[in-house]
Amino acid sequence: MVFVTGPLYSGKKTYVKERMHWDDETLARLAVWDVQDRAAGCTDLARLADELSQKEVVIATEIGGGVVPVLAEERAAREAAGRLACLLAQRADTVVRVFCGIPTVLKGEEVQ
Q: Sign of the CA dihedral 90, 95, 98, 99?
């Protein structure tokens, strides 16, 4: 599994489509994105990470930077998203962070 992460609108899907030579239909079939949203309220992040890692590519938006939310439930959701990202990175063969459209391989080999 390839785990791709980075800020909102940083080019994560574009990176995957170009590197994997996928069209929109293939992307929809073989990848899952915005997985950080699934972490909020999840009672078993390890099980969620196991399920998500069955896809060829998993894409998550980093949401931990910036101002800490005032509401406890928003802080908990952000914490859960970060923990899910850690679990996905552990399970991944390749981890790529995309920032300003520039991919940086953090783990494994670049997708060809």
A: positive
Q: How far is CA 72 from CA 67, 69, 82, in A?
A: 13, 7, 15
Q: Report all structural domains of the chain as residue ranges with CATH numbers, in order of start.
A: 2-107 (3.40.50.300)
Please list, in sequence order, all residues whose beta carbon lies within 8 angstroms of the beta carbon of residue 31, skipping any fewer than 6 positions away: 16, 22, 55, 56, 57, 58, 59
pTM across the whole model? 0.94
Q: Minimal CA–CA distance to 40: which of 64, 6, 75?
A: 75
**Amino acid residing at 50:** D
pLDDT, tens only, 18-55:
999 999 999 999 999 999 999 999 999 999 999 999 99
Residue 74: predicted pLDDT: 92
Query: How far apart, in whole angstroms, are the C-alpha atoms of residue 35 and residue 51?
Result: 11
Check residue 37 and report its DSSP letter: H
